[in-house]
Amino acid sequence: MAVFTSVSEAELTAWLGDYSLGHLLELQGIASGIENTNYFVTTSNGRFVLTLFEILSADELPFYLNLMAHLARHGIPCPNPVANRGNQFLGTLKGKPACIVSRLSGKSTTTPSNAQCAAIGAMLGQMHIAGQSFSQIMPNPRGAAWRAATAPQVLPFLDAQQAALLESEVALHATQNCSSLPQGVIHADLFRDNALLEDDRVGGLIDFYFACSDALLYDVAITVNDWCMGAEGILDAVKAQALLRAYHAERPLLNSEHKAWPLMLRVASLRFWLSRLYDKHLPRDGELIHAHDPRHFERILKNYIASELAIWL
Question: Is the domain of 95 the same as that of 119?
């Protein structure tokens, strides 16, 4: 259960007194996620999601909340933060920074169809375009510096072959400069469980708390590596091309991005292999039960290296 901080109905009722959301009808913990405490909240005015932030500080959160509000204003179906009577998105509940956002329709899928891959590609392209007018900048907190600092911490838990692979990939991508590629706000974690679908339509994009400023192509690679991955970590060509073509129809990809694509798929794989290794071997209290298997992204990375496969448009 991803409820690190328990909130009672009485405590939430008191907190909601600073909002114009009606009276509380139901409070239900959400059994997913590893970073924050989340609850479904139903009031007489509608359905919402309450988040208590367990890691991010109050100083870090305005970027994410302002981004979601910006995207929602530009027609992207994402959680829209609700301002309190002081016109602030962020409050404090149980000593933790907290916010309440709109609850979106749809549900996630573990087996996306070709049409659903195309739908998420189109929505990602639309999100990237909408983000171009967002003025705030957030350097990627899990970029090259993070990789260089985190890899040595997990090396003691790896065998010699894994350690050599990790060190070589971190060194390789440290030499890559993607600043010449189109930049902007990226979701950075658009896995299947962070999108809500209604048949072949995207009802919502959720969990923007890894969002940052980086190469837009990196976001595409992260998304492809989850939505279009087949058995044994081998990319599904049909799904990948459906996603890329739909994205390209919204934001045309450049020749420079085509050239960067193979290594971008690898660095996106490395990012999640490394973070999953860290979460597995060096977990926070109460987090181990949620840790994903790092071998999944290790296999994906090895397959990319072995095959040099980088399915494009």
Answer: no
The CA-based dihedral angle spanning residues 191, 194, 197, 203, taken in that order and rounded to the nearest 10 degrees: -130
Whether residue 42 is found in the same domain as residue 169: no
The CATH number of the domain holding residue 80 is 3.30.200.20
Q: Do 194 and 292 belong to one domain?
A: yes
Q: Which residue's entry shows tokens 């181990």? A: 288
**Which structure tokens are listed for 147?**
């990789």
Angle between helices 255-281 and 144-154 (to 10 degrees): 30
For residue 246, the model assigns a pLDDT of 98
CA 123 to CA 201: how far, in whole Å? 9
- In a 10 Å sphere around its CB, with 0-12 CB exposed, 13-18 middle and 19+ buried, how is residue 213 labelled? middle
Mean predicted confidence (pLDDT) in 190-203: 97
Which residue segment(s) compose the domain that 39 sits in? 9-102
CA distance readout (Å), 167 to 245, 270, 275: 34, 11, 14
For residues 286-303, give the mean pLDDT. Answer: 81
11: which 2 tokens?
Answer: 């405590």
Beta strands in the chain (DSSP E): 24-29, 36-43, 46-53, 91-93, 96-102, 183-186, 195-198, 201-205, 212-215
Q: Model's pTM, two decimal places?
A: 0.95
At position 40, the amino acid (one-letter code) is F
Decide: residue 92, CB within 10 A, 0-12 exposed, 13-18 middle, 19+ buried.
Answer: exposed
**What is the pLDDT of the chain when averaged over all its residues?**
95
Residue 287's pLDDT band, with cuts at 50, 70 and 90, is: very low
- pLDDT at 33 (0 to 100): 67
Residue in the block written with tokens 């998304």: 223
